[in-house]
Specification:
The complex is a heterodimer.
Chain A lengths: L5 H16 L5 H16 L3 H32 L6 H49 L17 H17 L8 H9 L12 H9 L6 H33 L8 H31 L17 H7 L2 H16 L2 H14 L1 H24 L3 H31 L5 H18 L1 H4 L3 H13 L8 H5 L5 H24 L2 H7 L2 H18 L17
Helix pairs in contact in A: 1-2, 2-6, 3-4, 3-5, 3-6, 4-5, 8-9, 8-19, 8-21, 9-15, 9-17, 11-13, 12-13, 13-14
Chain B lengths: L1 H10 L19 H15 L10 H4 L2 H13 L1
Classes of the chains: A mainly alpha, B mainly alpha.
Chain lengths: 531, 75
Amino acid sequence: MLFTSYSFIGFIAVVFLLYYLFPRKCQWPFLLAASYTFYFIASPSYLLFIGATTVSTYMTGRRLDALKETQDAYIKANKGSLSREEKKAYKASMKAKQWKWLLGCLLFNLGILAVLKYTNFVIANFNGLLQMFGSGGQISFVDLVLPMGISFYTFQTMGYIIDVYRGTCRAEKNLFRLALFVSFFPQLVQGPISRYSDLAKSLYERHDFDTRTVAYGLYRILWGYFKKAMIADRILTAVNAIIQNPDTYQGGFVFVGMMFYAFELYADFTGGIDITIGIAETMGITVAENFRRPYLSKNIKEYWNRWHITMGTWFTDYIFYPISVCKPMLNVSKASRAKFGDFIGKRVPVYLSSFAVWFTTGIWHGASWNFIVWGLMNFVVIMISQECEPLYKKFHNRFHVKDKRWYGVFEILRTILLMSSLRMFDCYRDVPLTFRMFGNMFTHFRLSELHTEAFLELGLTGADYALLSVCLLLLFAVSLIEEKKGSVRDLIFAAPEIVRYAVFYVLVLSVIIFGAYGIGFDQSQFIYNQF
Amino acid sequence: MEALLKILTNLHPEVDFETSTDLVDGKIIDSFDIVSIISEINDEYDVVIPAEEIVPDNFNSAQALYELIVRLEDE
């Protein structure tokens, strides 16, 4: 069921009505039933996988909590008789038991994800190696289902169970409540990756119908549909024409395709998240924000703090920090410092854990070398920019440009171009072709080729381009206002009632009339759906 | 505390760590800085700061960080 399909709009309308019609104590169980229905409609077989992940996580969480309770009770009962060392040794032995449970749970759930998502990738690479060494044998590919949103819900449950292990949250005692946390339908499609401590309270709370909350949610949903239908699905036609015909569209059109894809991805992903957050909001549920105007970032590090925020913080908290501050890594760092000096030694933990983070980020996005190389290119760019920071500081101090508006604009454009060029790995069919087209963008650039007729051959009419320009300008204006003045919805709701209604109806009508639903357009799946 | 201030000042000489209370929230130090700080604390105090203790409250000020070190030493 596509977010943009009429059946989905009908589904959320029914869920919304019943959610407020049911007695308040039945709200969260109803949401669980709705979420499982949503998943069942997508494919009944998916339920098996999400069920297995939920039950294994639930059982492990309960076991971790029980071990903690046993530990606390033992220490309390033997408070006077235990020496400091004995207490420490006992805690260490209990921690080791908890670790075994945690590891088992992580391996089980990661195993499901790995088998379903990466088996054919491994087979393809193995076959490639066999071919390279002249062997005639090939392994057949396996027909496997890939449950919708598996990367999102697997990471969400992993975050939950690690938090329980760390003691930063208590294990959920009710299996069905945990099942709702894992399967909450608006965020199953493309995240965000919620933390239990952030989502649980409002997810299980009883909510009264509140006109303002519902209206706020509706505006957010509409804004999401606006971005998806008016921008992403419209520009998609031109993007596909360019990237699927690399022999035809070269030079300047590679640049055009790169920028069009950057707009498409932004409108598609943020639009989808707006719909998710908006649906939850209409039911009084607060889902974590996933974007903070990433295309206004002045450097790549800032960009990654603003883009797909829940994924970024997930990787920082559960991969980057645990690897970089674990005892073996600290020993490696110490040894490197002794052998190579402070300069290199200090960098070892950061470089190694960043490499792990970006490799994982890449492969999380998809079982393909394109994504892995994309992740590693991000790693390279971030590390270079980190090393160049002292140079930037010197430059800024010398020329006093940091406070100049034009320099800020330059930094933003630089970041957009850099990130958009890395995203070319999403577009072209393999890594060598991506590198080739990147080079081609400079070597075959002819301004004269970028004429009106050539643009019209990309599958969009003049009216489409005009509409896209208006929508992108509006998107840019809204982003600027939010950056400088905060929530645009707050401003709309503070304005006279007529303005509020006007904005609402203009959004509704524009999506219905100008949305990419007409002849020649296909409602497309969200890009992040496939992850 | 002096040793800790020295570690922090070496990393960011321009920051007054004795008075700053929003090192993480104010984006004065980032995740790379935190890893460097933890590595140096391990050398200086022989204390391993586990990943679960890396929360803004523990790293927003030198004082909070020092209290964390003392607590971990006691455990």
